[in-house]
Design brief:
With 189 residues, the chain is α+β, with helices and mostly antiparallel strands. The chain is built from six helices and eight strands.
Length: 189
Amino acid sequence: MSSTFLLKLAGESSSEAVLDLDRVEEEEDARMYMDLGIPDEMLRCLDERHPIQSFIAEPLPGTMKLLYRRRGQTWRATLYDCYHSRTQRQLTIKLSHDGFHYHKRRYQQAGISTHRRRDYFSLGEDVLADMPYLQQLKDRLDAKIVFLYNIKHKRIDIKFFKGEADYPFLFITFEPGHPETELAKEIRF
């Protein structure tokens, strides 16, 4: 911490100082954790087993749970539709990120809240250099992306947009999870 920051803390109330320290600690954490190769591999394994494009065109009949394999383990993806209006459908895919570690990159506080969670960081499209499969999917879908990361909740949210649309047509989120070890014994691939 810089001496300027410490002097700023000295002039604040204790509650303001605690908030500032929490913010700085969170930014430090965001710099320390995230190897994007792991979620990229999870995305690739799902898409190879269950092509994502096939779920985008038509509404889903309900929530779907799809199983796929990665490194000898069975994982589950949850797919469901969200509607921003009667005509604005968004396919949502929830995947596990199986843990990840950060390496240095530019980021900025996004200043948004989503899913009742605050403190997201917005990462630029330079993340695609570390996520070649995400780059392929983005190109195949001819989409723009918004990449959000929340260290506190160990969550990555990727929103896919077409043209100048206000709402994403695809939303992929990576959350903490684990392999489906119980189901893996019953399923043959």
